[in-house]
Amino acid sequence: MTTGRGHAQLEHSMHHDFITDGWKQTAQEEMAIAAKEETEEAIKMGDVDVDRVPILTIVADGAGRRDPTIKNTNPCQEW
């Protein structure tokens, strides 16, 4: 059974893939640039371990991973 929308769905899928691939590529490039800048800043500030490996401080609040059904009253407690 066909609905006559096969071509439109295929075209939508192709556009979606094109946009998604571009978004992923841009995000990866921007994250690589940010990591390089943060590494250079850590070295400049002397934030390195005994082997001169830069130590990067990562601050993440996990806001993007919250489950609205969980009522956690302690923001410092994991789930």
Walk me through this protein's architecture.
Helices cover 51% and strands 0% of the residues. With 79 residues, it is mostly helical. The protein has a domain at 22-62. The longest helix has 40 residues, at 6-45. The radius of gyration is 22 Å and the shape is elongated. It starts with 5 loop residues before the first helix and ends in a 34-residue tail after the last helix. The model has no long low-confidence stretch (mean pLDDT 77).
Class derived from helix and strand content: mainly alpha
Largest sheet: none
Mean pLDDT: 77
SSE string, helices as H and strands as E: H
Count every helix, treating DSSP H or I runs of 4 or more residues as helices.
1
Residue share in β-strands: under 5%
Number of strands: 0
As a whole number of angstroms, the C-alpha radius of gyration is: 22 Å
Poorly predicted runs are: none
Helix content: 40-55%
Describe the structure in brief.
By secondary structure, this protein is mainly α. It has one helix at 6-45. The protein contains one helix and no strands.
Give a quick set of tags describing it.
mainly alpha; 1 helix; 79 residues
What's the arrangement of secondary structure elements?
Blueprint: H1 6-45
